[in-house]
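Hello forum,

I keep getting stuck at the same step: I have a sequence, I want structure tokens, and every attempt I make locally crashes halfway through. Rather than fight my setup again tonight, could one of you with a working pipeline run this one for me? It's a single chain of 80 residues.
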Amino acid sequence: MSNEVETVFKKGKKQGSIYLANEYLKSNNQKLINQVLDIILNPQKDMSDPDTLEWLKFLIASGNHFQDFHKEGNCDRSVF
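Reply #2:
Ran it on my machine without issues. Output:
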């Protein structure tokens, strides 16, 4: 695991998601996003794991609470 990926996970879900979004906007670092998603979406992990689901929600909402993101109309409600 690279230092950048470790930094994302050490920051936790909320701050790590914000960091990841900022890094992408700043440098278009798709590689970092892919590395983080490879860990979170590891096929050997149970997708119903609450930790995995929380990470995905924070990543989708760019570090905001998913409920707030959903309430503000920032997503297609038909999917949820």
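Residues 76-80 have pLDDT under 50 and may be disordered. If your local run keeps crashing, start a new thread with the error log.
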